[in-house]
């Protein structure tokens, strides 16, 4: 009797093993034999353009002697230094021609600008003028060296014996002033312009 019970128990146990349900196996992806397509030539070109560095417009506070020091760093090249102000309409009319000179001659000519906006008012330090000066320079795409002079304009004009702006200094390759253009000393009685006066003089120096 005991043997029968054992046999029945064994049969039930083996039967229960056969009733287990196997868990589903994850599907194996079927390779199509193709590789993902790479970026198109147009996409590569667009990425290259996006990574190119664009020249920025800068503006640094300097006194007059420090500005002349910047000019001296370019000895061996012709340098054009434009003195101007956002409160001077003739200055802003002529300024785009300085940018044209810079674009036209590239590395052969160094163009610089010095803003004379600071009027020496205690409540309006030089930094006060930075935003409006930089805004104008940015609109003009003046990507060369730009200075906001931190010396009061009247004191500066007295120091360099200049009656008014606009004024343009042209330095020769020897680092010395070759000519200063300003309306007060114009022999013809007409206001100087880049097209009529500055550009031809610069061309002559570059050709020497």
How would you describe what is shown here?
The chain has helices spanning 2-18, 41-51, 64-72, 89-105, 130-139, 153-160, 194-207, and strands at 60-62, 78-84, 109-115, 145-149, 167-171, 177-182. It is α/β, with parallel strands linked by helices. It has a single domain (60-207), classed as Glutaredoxin. β2, α4 (89-105) and β3 form a beta-alpha-beta unit. The longest helix is centred in the N-terminal third of the chain and has 17 residues, at 2-18. The model is unreliable at 12-36 and 45-52 (pLDDT under 50).
CATH class category: Alpha Beta
What is the annotated CATH architecture? 3-Layer(aba) Sandwich
Q: What is the number of helices?
A: 7
Can you tell me the residue ranges where pLDDT is under 50 for at least 5 consecutive residues? 12-36, 45-52
- Radius of gyration from CA coordinates: 38 Å
* Tally of DSSP β-strands: 6
Shape: globular
- CATH topology call: Glutaredoxin
